[in-house]
Amino acid sequence: MSSRNLDQLYRRVIMDHYKHPRNRGTLSEDGSVVVNMNNPTCGDKIQIHLKLDGDKISDVKYTGEGCSISQSSASMMTEAIKGLTIDQFHKMAFVFSEMVQGRDYDEDIELGDAEALQGVSQFPARIKCATLAWKAMEKALREHETQHQSH
Ligand code: ZN
Question: pLDDT 10s per residue in the chain (151 long)?
């Protein structure tokens, strides 16, 4: 596929997640972690609702507002990470971060639709939009760890 066609495909995937978000919503408060994260430079907001089963991500949802990159990224991320272990998530988050910054990344790690955001590397101002949901998810995992330290 030519790079121009690939760009168009990626743009379609991004707009599809923006218009038809996956896993948008909230989880019951019972045992779930809720965190907020903002990207003030663009005005993006993401709230992550996370439920773990041991070290496995058993359910994750998000709400938020902002640009199409930030919101579609959250939709793609929740779809890609459900069922992963915490360790697998951190590996994937690292690969995603390298990809959107235009660095070499481990292509063996399957990012799903989130790969459509690789063009963001050409627009440095949008990198924070793309990584907002992933950073919020890392914050949710830290929060979960804090809540469970006393047990
Ligand atoms: Zn944004």
Answer: 678 888 899 999 999 999 999 999 999 888 899 999 999 999 999 999 999 999 999 999 999 999 999 999 999 999 999 999 999 999 999 999 999 999 999 999 999 999 999 999 999 999 999 999 999 999 999 999 998 875 5
Q: How far is the CA of 149 from the centre of ligand 1 (A)?
A: 34
Number of domain units in the chain: 1
Whole-number Å distance, alpha carbon 93 to ligand 1 midpoint, is 18
Domain span holding position 119: 3-149
Q: Is the pTM of this model over 0.90?
A: yes
Tokens of 125: 């101002």
Length of the chain: 151
The CATH number given to whatever domain includes residue 46 is 3.90.1010.10
